[in-house]
Amino acid sequence: MLKKFTIILVAALFLAVAAVPVSAQQVLMNSAETINKGNLKLAVFPTVLFGKNGGDSLWGVASRFGYGLSSNLDIEAKAAFFKGLKYFGVDLEYWFLKGENFNVSAALGGHMTDVNGGGDSKGIDAALLASTKPAKNLEVYGGLMLAFDSIKNGNNFTMAHLVPGIEYRISNDLDFLAEVGIGLNDNSRSYASVGLAFYLMR
After folding, report:
1. Chain centroid offset of residue 107 CA
2. CATH for 2-200, among 2.40.128, 1.10.3470, 2.40.160, 2.40.370?
């Protein structure tokens, strides 16, 4: 029953896109631990970009689809949907420090955006992520997320976010996640994201 509810919720969230265009935006929404080898991950996160310089806050939906390649390496496809904007990307995450209760991973990938009326861009993504477990089913994580974008027939720009978040295991195949992205430069809008990650064969 829980799996059916999750699938219905995921489908509904994909339809709940906003009514205003925005710049490309991704989210971290995972701890430093990679997806278990051979497992699949489906995750969807309603996301709000907070207003900047007197502008309105904007709503959209971000998502991740991942697969565990090994015990410390996974690959994830990324997508985000807002009115007037489609965002698609992929990254590899490597879990390079496995401590007793402290983990660190790094991710590297790329993305492209399709913007109505022009302004399409492509870029490189990078992230450094650390996490710990203060309780049995709870992980607290923090990361630095960077995006280096190039606008078609336009200028280059960089987005940088400091990202604290939590991941709570509801069941063996379902996690709840929430995070805040704090924009670190003029090109970056702070955001909040919350949602569910569903695992197959966990």
Report:
1. 11
2. 2.40.160
